[in-house]
Structures are given as structure tokens and as C-alpha cells.
């Protein structure tokens, strides 16, 4: 449903049916903010946490059952 409203808003902006380009301004703002902060993409962060979690569980398993 959200995608529908985003597409509809972009269509209205392109056709000049709204005075203020909300979606366009928001995209520009967040793009500049990401560049300035150097933040990672959420999928990348999730991958890092997943690898870290897997390593931690493996180390716990080795400590408890192997040694």
C-alpha cells in the first residue's frame, strides 16, 4: 500500500498537481544526509550482525563442548 502512495505522489509531483514536491525533497535530503554521514545500508549492517552472531555462537559451542 505504501508503494502505491509513493508512486501516486511522484506522479502528482511530475504532473504539477501539488505545490510542494514532498517526495522529491525527501529523497534529496536523505541522499545528502547519507553521503555526509557515511552510513551503511541496512542490509549491509544486517549481514555484519549475522556474521558476528554466527561467529559468537560457534565460539560458545567450541568453548562448551570441544574444550
Instruction: Figure out the total of helices.
Output: 3
What is the strand tally?
0
The SS-based structural class is: mainly alpha
**Biggest sheet architecture:** none
Proportion of helical residues: over 70%
Question: Could you list the spans in which at least 5 consecutive residues all have pLDDT below 50?
Answer: none
Compute the gyration radius: what is it?
A: 22 Å
The span between the termini is: 53 Å
Order of helices and strands: HHH
Instruction: Tell the overall outline.
Output: elongated
As a percent range, the share of strand residues is under 5%
Q: What value does the average pLDDT take? A: 82
The total number of structural domains is 1
Layout of strands and helices, then pairs:
Elements: H1 2-15, H2 22-37, H3 42-66
Tags for this model:
67 residues, 82% helix, mainly alpha, elongated, single chain
Structure description:
It is a single chain. The chain is mainly alpha-helical and 67 residues long. The chain has one domain (2-66). It has three helices and no strands. The relative contact order is 0.06.
In a nutshell, what does this entry contain?
This protein has 67 residues and is mainly α. Helix content is 82%, strand content 0%.
Amino acid at each position: 500500500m505504501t508503494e502505491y502512495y509513493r508512486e501516486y505522489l511522484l506522479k502528482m509531483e511530475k504532473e504539477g498537481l501539488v505545490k510542494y514536491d514532498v517526495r522529491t525533497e525527501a529523497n534529496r535530503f536523505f541522499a545528502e544526509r547519507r553521503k555526509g554521514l557515511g552510513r551503511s545500508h541496512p542490509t549491509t549492517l544486517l549481514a555484519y550482525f549475522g556474521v558476528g552472531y554466527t561467529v559468537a555462537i560457534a565460539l560458545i559451542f567450541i568453548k562448551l563442548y570441544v574444550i
